[in-house]
From TrEMBL:
GO terms for cellular component: centrosome; cleavage furrow; microtubule; nucleus. The gene is FSD1. InterPro entries: B30.2/SPRY, B30.2/SPRY_sf, Bbox_C, ConA-like_dom_sf, COS_domain, E3_ligase_FN3/SPRY, FN3_dom, FN3_sf. May be involved in microtubule organization and stabilization. Pfam families: fn3 (PF00041), SPRY (PF00622). Residues 222-326 form the Fibronectin type-III domain. Residues 359-393 are annotated as: Disordered. Keywords: Cell cycle, Cell division, Coiled coil, Cytoplasm, Cytoskeleton, Methylation, Microtubule, Mitosis, Nucleus. The lineage of its organism: Eukaryota, Metazoa, Chordata, Craniata, Vertebrata. This is Fibronectin type III and SPRY domain-containing protein 1. Residues 326-535 form the B30.2/SPRY domain. It is found in: Cleavage furrow; Cytoplasm, Cytoskeleton, Microtubule organizing center, Centrosome; Nucleus. PANTHER family: E3 UBIQUITIN-PROTEIN LIGASE TRIM36-RELATED (PTHR24099), FIBRONECTIN TYPE III AND SPRY DOMAIN-CONTAINING PROTEIN 1 (PTHR24099:SF4). It comes from Suricata suricatta (Meerkat).
Length: 554
């Protein structure tokens, strides 16, 4: 191609042929009013005769620009081809879908015909049974009347004959017999009222309403999008109850589909999210409760669509609900070398110290990337989540088989649960200040509070703080719940299954706290992302007779 600049001139030798590429020469003759002379192969073109001469300056296009044009044309051609393929596929889909809906329609009408035929047969059978019953009753009554009439006629004839023979000596006797016969005659004991009616109008039908309904039959409309009722929806106890309504009453709705996903972003749902939509189908009511959720992100998005037998509505306007919960990980950089930390699970390993020491040397201090604090999978970190400030040399050591959480508690209420192996020789759970020394054990200093289970030598279940212990008179549960109310200075421990209060520390926390755990010859697993249970809140408000202050530990 080229850029053309021209002006009027004289016809004649002033216009000299311009040699152009053969690929361009092949296309130029098609441009009206051009009538190019010359051979495309030679690439020599001259201005057609009879036209006013133009002084033409053909500015050649660079190879880069030409390649760009070729790329644009190729992309457009590919786009058109893709659209053509899409149109062809849509034609096939129209044929297939129309055949399917036609078959479905015929099946529905056939089902309706069958139902009507069954109803017709049942109603005809009812009429036949009613006719047979009434015919039987009337025929029996007719036969009884005929017999009574015959008996009455015979008695009448006898009475007439007796009356004519009044001079006979047997007259009184005959008259008495006739009188007795009349008294006992069936005609006088017979009811002359029909037992059944001949009216069958109660078996008439009126299909006017049904006919109007049939005449109103049409294709199923697309349902309206539901509207989520935020005022009625509830987030509590790691459950979400979502309530919605239809903007218009629709009796054709068969079920609803609920979708939800987790997110760390407040406000309207974003188009792109790392978390996928989770789907709940077949909901028959206009509300649904999701139970047993783990709130490992700050919010959840929800949307609902209504479905009739044939088609679904658009999704409702998506809503975002806050799911406040305490989420943390175990900080592997604080753990004793004999503790093998894997996300929220910890196992005591007698050889762990030596093995971890070797690995630490090999990685030249890079082993800290295994800490959940630095994990890229953590998503948006909490502003309170931070490293405890302990390097490798500051991890717990000696007989302090301890590991801390990675998220500070400096206000509000928080709850988490921990399940430990019953065969563990020693296990403890509680909270501690960040200043807890690397040699210090949970509950033996003023900077930590814990519940401690000891199965070594002498079994015990105690609450410990500042090197004081109180024996708890309660069975040891296999799962403990920990509730910390920082501002109220309350640290409570519960049986996680029954929510029985085991012990409460009352203190004035002067520093931020960290979840703290210790285990020896055993293992445990922590569950986070939990809300404070409603039952725990109620117990906390009422207070408990079993709760005690830390000063009472002896």
């Amino acid at each position: 191609m080229g850029l053309f600049a021209a002006r009027r001139g004289k016809v004649g030798p002033e216009l000299r042929p311009w040699r152009c590429p053969s690929s361009l020469a092949r296309w130029l003759p098609r441009l009206d009013p051009w009538k190019a002379s010359g051979s495309p192969r030679s690439g020599s073109l001259s201005w057609p005769r009879g036209l006013p001469a133009l002084r033409v300056c053909l500015l050649p296009v660079g190879q880069g620009a030409l390649r760009k044009l070729i790329t644009t044309l190729a992309a457009k051609n590919e786009e058109i081809q893709s659209f053509i393929y899409s149109l062809k596929q849509m034609l096939l889909n129209v044929e297939a879908n129309s055949t399917k809906v036609q078959e479905d329609l015929e099946a529905e009408f056939q089902s309706l015909f069958s139902l009507l035929e069954e109803l017709k047969e049942g109603m005809l059978m009812k009429i036949k049974q009613e006719r047979a019953s009434r015919t039987y009753e009337l025929q029996n009554q007719l036969a009884a009347c005929a017999r009574a009439l015959e008996s009455s006629e015979e008695l009448l004839e006898t009475a007439n004959q007796t009356l004519q023979a009044t001079d006979s000596e047997d007259f009184p006797q005959a008259a008495k017999q006739i009188k007795d016969g009349v008294t006992m005659a069936p005609a006088f004991r017979l009811s002359l009222k029909a037992k059944v009616s001949d009216n069958m109008s109660h078996l008439m039908v009126d299909f006017a309403q049904e006919r109007r309904m049939l005449q109103a039959l049409t294709f199923l409309p697309v349902p309206s999008a539901p509207v989520i009722d935020l005022a009625e929806s509830l987030v509590a106890d790691n459950c979400v109850t979502l309530v919605w309504r239809m903007p218009d009453e629709d009796s054709k709705i068969d079920h609803y589909v609920l979708e939800y996903r987790r997110t760390n972003f407040e406000g309207p749902p974003r188009l792109r999210e790392e978390q996928p939509w989770m789907v709940v189908e077949g909901i028959r009511q206009t509300e649904h409760t999701l139970t047993g959720l783990k709130f490992d992100m700050k919010y959840m998005n929800f949307r609902v669509k209504a479905c009739n037998k044939a088609v679904a509505s658009e999704f409702s306007e998506s809503v975002t609900l806050e799911t406040p919960a305490f989420m943390f990980r175990l900080d592997a950089s604080t753990s004793h070398q004999n503790l093998r930390v894997d996300d929220l699970s910890v196992e005591w390993d007698a050889m762990g110290g030596k093995v971890q020491d070797i690995k630490a040397r090999e990685k030249d201090g890079k082993g800290r990337t295994a800490s959940p604090v630095n994990s890229p999978a953590r998503g948006v970190p909490s502003p309170k989540r931070m490293s405890s400030g302990r390097g490798g040399r500051d991890r717990f050591t000696a007989e302090s088989y301890t590991v801390l959480g990675d998220t500070l508690i400096d206000g509000g209420e928080h709850y988490w649960e921990v399940r430990f192996e019953p065969d563990s020789k020693a296990f403890g759970v509680g909270v501690a200040y960040r200043s807890l020394g690397r040699f210090e054990q949970l509950g033996k200093t003023a900077s930590s509070w814990c519940l401690h289970v000891n199965n070594w030598l002498q079994a015990s279940f105690t609450a410990k703080h500042a090197n004081k212990a109180k024996v708890l008179d309660a069975p040891v549960p296999d799962c403990l719940g920990v509730h910390c109310d920082f501002h109220q200075g309350l640290l409570s421990f519960y049986n996680a299954r029954t929510k029985q209060l085991l012990h409460t520390f009352k203190a004035k926390f002067t520093q931020p706290l960290l979840p703290a755990f210790t285990v020896w010859c055993g293992s445990f697993q922590v569950t986070t992302g939990l809300q404070v249970p409603s039952s725990v809140r109620c117990l906390q408000k009422r207070g408990s007779a079993t709760s005690s202050s830390n000063t009472s530990l002896t």
